[in-house]
Amino acid sequence: MMRGVYLPGGRRVRIGEVPVPVPGHGQVLVAMRASTICGSDIRAIYREHLGHGAEAYAGVIAGHEPSGEIVEAGPGCRRVRAGDRVLLYHIAGCGVCRDCRAGYMISCTSPARAAYGWQRDGGHADFLLAEESTCVPLPEALSHLDGACVACGFGTAYEALCRAAVSGRDAVLITGMGPVGMAAGLLARKMGAAFIVGADVAESRLELAQRFGAVDAAVPADGAALERILDLTGGLGCEVSIDCSGSAAGRLLALRATRRWGRSVMVGEGGRLDLDVSQVLIHPSLTVHGSWVTSVARMEELVDNLVRWQLRPETIVTHRFPIGEAAEAYRVADEGLGGKVAIVMPD
Ligand SMILES: [Zn+2]
Ligand SMILES: [Zn+2]
């Protein structure tokens, strides 16, 4: 038997006991080592079950940011074997549609699509039954906790920065300095960003972002935020903005503080946006991207680059709990005041 964490809604956490699964064809059994908590787990599952479609929670073991060691590879596995350290791209797609062939299994619309922790058992458990197609090899230089941070958060931030083609020619504004915003700041610096500004309503998160080196300047997201960002950039704004807040105010700040002809990427999920299209988008000639997680190929590329850059995603983890204390882990993550919250298992 093994333990697994379930999220019945109403901010409750239940730990259940289920049999250890047996890998079938093309599947692996992963002994979990780290499984971090994502803002989406809080927003769409923990508080109440809000999700539809790809975000519908099917009452499974939670956790969509898994990393661990393969203990058994089922028949037909062609790349991985027992003993391999892996992180999991968190969506198993049908494998044959256009989106899956492009590696964006996140966008697969087949009924066969299932995300770990949403529609099939996830990483908050002693073991995870995973598809070989979702395994991303974890290099020795990275810890399992690093791997868990890549499985959704750092992957999502990296995709957004790639979409905006961030380089040394850009000042980058990040609105929302939660774990994804912190990841975006750390990655933007390695990609050469000339200057990085972070904005958030939580003073504690701005302090953490500065301590982790994720931003050069921290701006409280209040009524004076736009003016402060313009002051920091010669009155022109940032060439690139990344919204990781998911709030209407954060998104509008990101767009309004983007320099003319700049690029803005929307990553923070949920809610709506109401804006003056001529004033905010057309006259400043902005390019706006929506960006949803990343592809499995880009996640592999990110892992390679993290080693080259000597960047450790676990830098942003501020809280670690054993699986038996999952309720406390979720309570802390729900407060939204610290960095990344992780459930870690002993080796
Ligand atoms: Zn996530
Ligand atoms: Zn597909």
Question: Can you tell me about this structure?
Answer:
- There is one protein chain.
- By secondary structure, this protein is of the alpha/beta class.
- It has two domains: 2-154 and 294-344, Medium-chain alcohol dehydrogenases, catalytic domain (Quinone Oxidoreductase, Chain A, domain 1), CATH 3.90.180.10; 155-290, Rossmann fold (3-Layer(aba) Sandwich), CATH 3.40.50.
- Helices cover 29% and strands 27% of the residues.
- The protein is built from ten helices and 17 strands.
- It has helices at 39-46, 98-101, 144-163, 179-190, 203-211, 225-232, 248-256, 277-282, 296-309, 326-335, and strands at 2-9, 12-18, 27-36, 66-73, 85-88, 91-92, 114-115, 127-131, 135-137, 171-175, 195-200, 217-220, 238-243, 258-266, 287-290, 317-321, 340-344.
- The strands form four sheets. Strands 3, 4, 5, 8, 9, 16 and 17 form a seven-stranded mixed β-sheet that branches. The chain has a six-stranded parallel β-sheet with strand order 12-11-10-13-14-15, with helices on both faces. Strands 1-2 form a two-stranded antiparallel ribbon.
- Strand 13, helix 7 (248-256) and strand 14 form a beta-alpha-beta unit.
- The radius of gyration is 20 Å and the shape is globular.
- The structure holds zinc ion (2 copies).
- One zinc ion binds next to loops.
- One zinc ion (ZN) binds next to helix 2.
